[in-house]
Every structure is written in C-alpha cells, then in structure tokens.
Amino acid sequence: MWRRLRSALRSLRGSPAAPPHGGGGRPPAAMERAVVRCVPSEPKLSLRFVLPDGSARHMQRDQAEPLGRALARIATNAAKGHGKAGKKSKKARAEDGAEGEAAVPAVRLFSRDGAAVAEEVPNAAAWQDGAVLHIGDARYRVERNPPALTELRLPRSLLAGFPVCPKVSAEFAAPQHCLFRWFREQRPAGGGEAAGEAWVETAAAERVFTPSNALVGLRLKLRCTPGDGEQRYGPAREVESSGPVEAGPGACTFDSRHLYTKKVCGHGSVRAVSYNILADTYAQTEFSRTVLYPYCAPYALEIDYRQNLLKKELAGYSADLICLQEVDKSVFLDSLAPALDAFGLEGLFRIKEKQHEGLATFYRRDKFSLLSQHDIAFSEALLSEPLHKELCEQLAKYPLVQEKVLQRSSVLQVSVLQSTTDPSRKLCVANTHLYWHPKGGNIRLIQIAVAMSHIKHIACDLYPSIPVIFCGDFNSTPSSGTYSFISTGGIAEDHEDWVSNGEEERCSMSLSHPFKLLSACGEPAYTNYVGGFHGCLDYIFIDRNALEVEQVIPLPSHEEITTHQALPSVSHPSDHIALICDLKWK
C-alpha cells in the first residue's frame, strides 16, 4: 500500500518548469502539478495536488460552484495539513511561543496571462490548463484533463512471429498518440541468476510488437505514455506479460494468401473480407471437442491460441472492409478491436439477441468515415417495422414456420460509409449470419427477405443509388433457394426450400428485391471444411451495376486445408475460410 501511495505522490509531483506564474511575484524554480479533471457530462470536477508537507489532496467540487468557495476549501485543507505537519509537544510550543492554531494560507488562482481569476467565476470556467494556483508560497501549475491511461493490458498468450497487440484505453488521449517502449526479460547468463537489470529494452517503439524466435521463453514488458497529439503527455504505466513468449505453429494456411495482400490497395479500390471466425462459445463445448472437431488438438481450440492466429491473419490482409461472424463480445472488446485499431481499422459490433456472440464490421479509417448504422434483429423487425408488414401477414398463414422464425436470434448489421477522399462515393455494407440448420431453408428464405427489404430501404430510399456490399455466412450452398433469391432477385413459390423441413412446415410466398447482386468470389468448392461436411456457405455479394471485381485472393490449397485432416487446426483458427477480394467502382 505504501509503495502505491508513494507512486501516486510521485505522479502528482511536477518537474522543474518556468510557466506563467501570475500575481506579480517572481517565478518559482519549480512548480508542482494541480491535476483537474472536468468533463461536461459530469456535475463535479476533481482536483488533485500535493501539499508542501507531502500530503496528497483529492477534492470533488461542483462545476457550477463559484471559484471562491473552492479556494476557501483548499485553504482550510492546507491549514489542516500544515497544522498536522507542525504539531509539537506542549512544552515545545510554549518554548517557541507558537500559536495553537495553524495559520490559514492565502489561496489564489491566476490565469495563464498572470491575471487573478475572479472568485465568482464558476469552477468549470476557472480551472483552465496552464493556470497557476497559489497556496501560501507554493505554486502549482494547473493541468486540465491531462492524458491518462485507464487500461493497459497484454494478451495472455504470446507466440513468436505473431503480433502482440496491447489493449490500450485512455482518457483525454488516443492510442495512436501514445508512446510505446517494449522490454524483454533478461536471459540469465549460463543458466544462472540474471545480473543487473531484469529487463532489457528492445528496438521496438510501436504499438504492435512481433516477438522473434530469439524471445521464446522470455516475458515481455510494455511501458506506455499517454499522449493527446498536442504534445501533452500523462504519467506512464507499465504492464508485464503473465507468461513467456512461446514457439509459434510454423506455416499457417493464410501465409501464402498474405503474399497477395502485402499492401493496402489504392483509393479507387476496396479490399473486402468476409469471415466466420468460430465463436469461442461454440469451440469450447464438450460436443465441439469430441464430436465436431475431435481431430483438432485441444490447445488449438483455446481462444487465446486462436486469437493469435486470427489477429495475424486479419492484419496481414491489409483490408479496407472486414465483415466477421460468430464474434464473441469479449473477443471483440478485448482482442480484435484493439488489435485491428492498431492497424488502422475502426470496429462496429452487433450482438445477437440473447447470445454472447454476434457480428463485427471493420473499416479503414483513412479511407472511410461512418455516416450511419442501421442494424436490426430479423424477428423484431418483422413484427415491428411497417416495411415488413406484407411479409409478416403472409408468414402468419404458416404458424409453425412463423414461430420458428420469431424464435431465431439472427441479426443484420448495416453500415453506411463515405469515402474520405471522394465524398460522392458511399457504400452500404451489410453483414449477416443466417440460421444454421440444414433443414432450415424456409427459415433462411424469410430471414433473407427481411434483410433485402431493409437494405432496399437504406440503399434506395435513405441513400438513393448507393452501391451495396453484402457479406456473411448465409449457411446456404449455391444450389439453395437463398442463394438463388439473392442472385436473381426472385424465388419461385414452388422452390424445394419452401418444404425444407417436410410438408407440415410447407410455406410458399412471392419474394423479390431490386438489386443486381453478384458473388464476387464466385462459388468456391467450400468455405467451411469440418470432419463431417464441406461446402460453400459464405459469400461477398456486390452491386454489379456499380462495382466490379479486380482480383479474388486464392483460397488455401486443398492440401493446406487437410494437412491436419480438417478445420480448425493448429495452423487455421476457424472451421470457415476467409473470402477476400479487391473491388473497384465502375
């Protein structure tokens, strides 16, 4: 506890400076720091400083309160501190003739230009950055909302050759403006005790650090100094890895694909990725380990191990758009969002109803800005939005099917993006994961009908003529009714998928949509390869009137996929394969 207190006191103490001193006196040789945190959305501001006797003070004051009251309170606190520090025995006080009461020091606040701040000014306006607080003879430079780290965390699993992406959360700062210094444990010479410093600084000074094979067996330490991009820096924090760097798996299925995606494509092009990354909530069940993926080494199903592979795979695609399915909420918040943020991608998340996983869409910040989001849950939208009234009425004729549709937790994520270099270029990016059951073709048809109506509302009504990119795990092969409907714009009332679960669940209705959509990556032999099944379930559909395909990044070879029998494996983090293509505006 005393160590933490000393550390807190050190962080509050300032370094020698010669800032504006105010009040006409000579500038002090050094000033302490008075740290003010003032956020408009909160009723109070906080003030932290260290008195000359070394005691720390942390005050909360109403933002609207007149400055004079706050200064009076500081004076009272200072007098108490001085009184405690100067306590003497009765005999000593009698000998000195000391008074029993500690004198209350004069407390004033001066602005940066040296003028005294009037006592009737509200606290929120009075405590400005660079102002100087006088407490008796002591001087304090006010730091208003200085950069501060609220969280600094390293991943639990570190693999040689795989990027280590810390989670950095900051207040009044941004990770891209922070300073990073990486250290490695010192390896003991000759197997004995390490001499001197236990940590050795590496040459790396970036937010993301990729440990080499030489660091296997050693722990890492990160020192981060928060910054705000305006040459203001807050106190540094350090974090050590919980375990050492471990050896990586060697060649991975995505290594050869990275040869095609070393660079981000130009501003006239868009590289899109769609990928079901296999939610941890499904990978870590007994059923998954013993029935679905018995061929996969148990450690390769662990989320920490798979996250190492996923982050390297996704970062290496240099994508502009990434649509992910089966994303655990914790994986998005603690792993993928911080990692991809370091590579210039902004993330959006939509959780499934009553589930722990959902959809994530990432876009490259220097290419796109987010205009609006239009996410829906299919079941909720079907019941509540006038847009789907006709479909809802048709569905009501088939109560068994209606019940199943309304029980599903599937969602649709829709983001409208605008080019940062050409504001006339906008994109409607949709992402979904349809119902999974092999006999659920009729359910998927209803879900995709809701999806297409919703996308039509956005791309035809709200943003007329905006091009559509529709990614996802559609759980539908190229011979399915869902694929046919998306590709052709209609579905026959007698299509076999309307009776996909037997006559008792037969339903048929007329469905249509106005888009001309093309599967940008064609119809691969498979995008999902597990022990008992392989088939094409994932697609990137594009608006063929506005976009064209520049290149499709080849999928891994069949030999690579089956090296460890099937997916997932020690060299591939999911049971699906990412689809990647480069698109350009026509």
UniProtKB/TrEMBL annotation:
Residues 81-91 have a biased composition (Basic residues). Gene3D superfamilies: Endonuclease/exonuclease/phosphatase. SUPFAM superfamilies: DNase I-like (SSF56219). This is 2',5'-phosphodiesterase 12. GO terms for molecular function: metal ion binding; poly(A)-specific ribonuclease activity. PANTHER family: 2',5'-PHOSPHODIESTERASE 12, CARBON CATABOLITE REPRESSOR PROTEIN 4. It holds the Pfam family PDE12-like_N. Its cofactor is Mg(2+). Keywords: Exonuclease, Hydrolase, Magnesium, Metal-binding, Mitochondrion, mRNA processing, Nuclease, Phosphoprotein, Transit peptide. It is found in: Mitochondrion matrix. Residues 274-576 form the Endonuclease/exonuclease/phosphatase domain. Residues 1-30, 77-98 are annotated as: Disordered. Belongs to the CCR4/nocturin family. It comes from Tychaedon coryphoeus (Karoo scrub-robin). One of its GO terms (biological process) is mRNA processing. One of its GO terms (cellular component) is mitochondrial matrix. The keyword Ribonucleoprotein does not apply. It comes from the Eukaryota. Residues 146-246 form the 2',5'-phosphodiesterase 12-like N-terminal domain.
